[in-house]
Design brief:
The chain is of the alpha+beta class. Helices cover 64% and strands 10% of the residues. The strands form three sheets. It has a five-stranded mixed beta sheet. Strands 1-2 form a two-stranded antiparallel ribbon. The protein has a two-stranded antiparallel sheet with strand order 3-5. Helix 2 packs antiparallel against helix 3, helix 2 packs antiparallel against helix 5 and helix 6 runs antiparallel to helix 7. The protein starts with a helix and ends in a 5-residue tail after the last strand. 24% of the residues are buried.
């Protein structure tokens, strides 16, 4: 009835056997082992409690049986006295003898059960399972067996067939039974007292076991929480912050959690990724610096070349104009045509050079805008008048639909340049028809200007490409339309300097409409 010491101490130590300090074990194995230990701890606690409770039930059965044995002893004593008076009271001696025999046999059976364990039969007919007695109670049982053996010898005299109720052996047996039954009763009381005391100790042990089980289960739960917190939650949280920092462009962020587990592999992977990104960033910074330097050199070269070309072109154009003015009447028609061709080519080349200069300044960030109020209709009229001369013999009708009183807030020079480039582009790709300019102020405080033509149109896939520098839809050397491919790019950059945007609506064969916006809200 006493728990096995090895089992008890293994139960106490079970929750403390943990793999948490082994960082080489994978998270899955650690988790499975932790769950297994937790379950084993709960099973051990439950098993120990169940074991002690069963011991308690056995003790209660023994106490109950010892009480029944005490009652049987009293019944046997009464049966013996009843046999003594049976003759005088004219009672049926056989009935009393049979009753005594039954009580003696039941006492014998229950005593053997208490001694060896097994199923005991109660006087009321119930059956109770009794466990093996503990070592400490055996001396009591041996004394009880010895007293019972002496008492039973006297009972056998009473139950001997043919013994006379008034004979000397019968009377001596009655006297001995009366005395020795008291000894049996006393030993039965001692056994009952022993088991009651032992039961109280077991109840105390059960309470301590339950308390220790609860504390160890809480300790294991705390260990599991600490492992999950330090082994999973903290590393994952730090890795999240590292990844977030890398996403925020901090490529110096690194995680400290590197081990042989899956979490460690993840941390190592994040650090490797950050190292590669840092290396790529350094390479990119070096290349960007080279690109910036090359762009600066290109801009300087373009500006220098443009200036160098612009000077002799101005001289050529100037002398051609002087010749036509001073001695034009002495020149032949062919000579006049040649000079006019020289001047026209010079002006065209001057425009190309000016585009290169303007784009170089835009690329270098040297262009500033000066916002002021502008009558849009007047500027459009000036640009249309200039473009009519460039249209040559083309059958194009220019239409200015802008209200004469419409005022927009814009850099006038840049506005004129935007219109020149966009209308010039329409003239270039329109052989006949019309070019129309319109404008309106939206309720949100934005001026929308549109230039539409009836030219060849632009395929949808080229709507964005046409605003790229040096980009032409037909980029071959045999293309039908000239130009450097900078006009639309410069116009877009000037619009963007104002905070506006440019877009195209066009289909091949159905003309083109270019829209651009100039915000007005800051000048309301």
């Amino acid at each position: 009835m006493i728990p096995n010491d090895k089992f008890f101490f293994m139960f106490l130590l079970t929750p403390l056997i943990s793999p948490f300090t082994n960082k080489g074990i994978s998270i899955r194995k650690n988790t499975l082992i932790s769950i297994a230990l937790f379950v084993l701890s709960m099973l051990a606690a439950t098993g120990s409690t169940y074991f002690f409770v069963n011991l308690q039930k056995d003790d209660a059965a023994v106490i109950n049986l010892a009480g029944r044995q005490r009652m049987l002893t009293m019944l046997i004593k009464n049966d013996a006295l009843e046999m003594d008076f049976a003759h005088d009271l004219n009672m049926n001696m056989k009935d009393v003898s049979d009753k005594l025999t039954d009580h003696v046999e039941l006492f014998d059976l229950n005593l053997k059960t208490i001694r060896n364990g097994g199923i005991a039969k109660m006087p009321d007919g119930r059956q109770v399972m009794i466990g093996n007695p503990s070592v400490s109670v055996i001396p009591y049982l041996e004394r009880l067996e010895m007293k019972w053996a002496g008492l039973k010898r006297h009972l056998d005299v009473l139950l001997e067939p043919g013994v006379a109720a008034d004979s000397e052996p019968f009377l001596k047996a009655i006297e001995a039974i009366t005395i020795e039954s008291q000894d049996v009763l006393a030993i039965s009381d001692e056994i009952t007292s022993f088991f009651q005391h032992d039961s109280e100790k077991k109840i105390t042990i059960i309470k301590y076991v339950q308390i220790v089980s609860l504390l160890l289960t809480c300790l294991l739960g705390l260990l599991v929480y600490m492992y999950v917190r330090t082994g999973i939650i903290q590393p994952v949280s730090e890795m999240y912050q590292v990844v977030k920092s890398i996403g925020d462009n901090d490529l110096t962020a690194r995680t400290r959690f590197i081990s042989d587990s899956e979490i460690g592999d993840l941390g190592r992977g994040i650090n490797d990724m950050a190292d590669r990104l840092a290396d790529d960033r350094r390479d990119m910074d070096i290349k960007n610096k080279r690109l910036v330097e090359m762009s600066r050199l290109k801009s300087e070269f373009t500006a220098n070349v443009s200036h160098e070309l612009n000077t002799p072109l101005s001289v050529i154009i100037g002398f051609s104009e002087i010749i036509l003015q001073e001695i034009g009447d002495r020149l032949t028609d062919d000579q006049k045509t040649y000079l006019a061709g020289i001047m026209e080519g010079g002006h065209a080349l001057t425009e190309r050079i000016r585009d290169l200069l303007n784009f170089s300044e835009l690329e270098a960030g040297l262009v500033k805008i000066n916002i002021g109020s502008v009558l849009a209709n007047g500027v459009v009229d000036e640009v249309i008048a200039f473009e009519k001369n460039l249209a040559g013999g083309k059958d194009i009708r220019f239409i200015n639909e802008i209200d004469k009183d419409l005022v927009i807030y814009v850099d006038e020079g840049k506005f004129r340049h935007i219109l020149l480039n966009l209308i010039n582009n329409s003239v270039k790709f329109t052989e006949s028809g019309e070019i129309k300019v319109s404008a309106r102020i939206e309720a949100g405080g934005e001026a929308i200007i549109s230039i539409s033509d009836t030219g060849i149109g632009i395929p949808a896939e080229a709507h964005e490409l046409i605003f790229e520098p040096f980009r032409q839809i037909d980029g071959s050397h045999t293309r039908n339309y000239g130009g450097t491919g900078l006009g639309l790019a410069i116009a877009q950059r000037y619009v963007q300097l104002h905070g506006g945007r440019v877009w195209v609506e066009s289909e091949p064969g159905n003309g083109t409409t270019v829209f651009f916006t100039i915000p007005q809200h800051s000048h309301g």
